[in-house]
Amino acid sequence: MINSLALKVNMVQKRFLTKYRGLLLPLIVEKDEDGFYVVECPVLEGCYTQGKTIDEALRNIREVIELVLEEKKSREILKSYRLRELSLHTITL
């Protein structure tokens, strides 16, 4: 029963990912004070993770995006989202 449920969840996640394949999402990556890389997708609420390396953090954010897309609100956001311009700026205080 548990394996069947896990398989169904996996199929639903793949369906969502296939639907949004090719969509560009912005990610912000920052190295924290402990040396971990923190990654956030500012388009999706609560979509952030970390990893010891950038590669690990990027793999992790893909998993988080899959989980966040289980929420109808997140899917609605992505329906109309198109990256038009992206810019990152820093200031010194």
Molecular structure report:
The protein is of the alpha+beta class and 93 residues long. The chain is 45% helix and 13% strand. It has one domain (2-80): Double Stranded RNA Binding Domain. The protein starts with a helix and ends in a 13-residue tail after the last helix.
Short description:
By secondary structure, this protein is of the alpha+beta class.
Key structural traits:
Double Stranded RNA Binding Domain, globular, single chain, alpha+beta, three-stranded antiparallel beta sheet, 45% helix, 3 helices, 93 residues
Percent strand: 5-15%
The CATH class, by name, is Alpha Beta
Residue runs with pLDDT of under 50 for 5 or more positions: none
Structural class computed from helices and strand pairing:
alpha+beta
Query: Percentage of helical residues?
Result: 40-55%
Q: How many independent structural domains? A: 1
CA(first)-CA(last) distance: 56 Å
SSE topology string: HEEEHH
Q: How many β-strand stretches? A: 3
Largest beta-sheet characterization: 3 strands, antiparallel
The overall pLDDT average reads 86
Strand order, largest beta sheet? 1-2-3
Shape: globular
- Rg over CA atoms, rounded to whole Å, is 15 Å
CATH architecture: 2-Layer Sandwich
CATH topology: Double Stranded RNA Binding Domain
Helix tally? Answer: 3
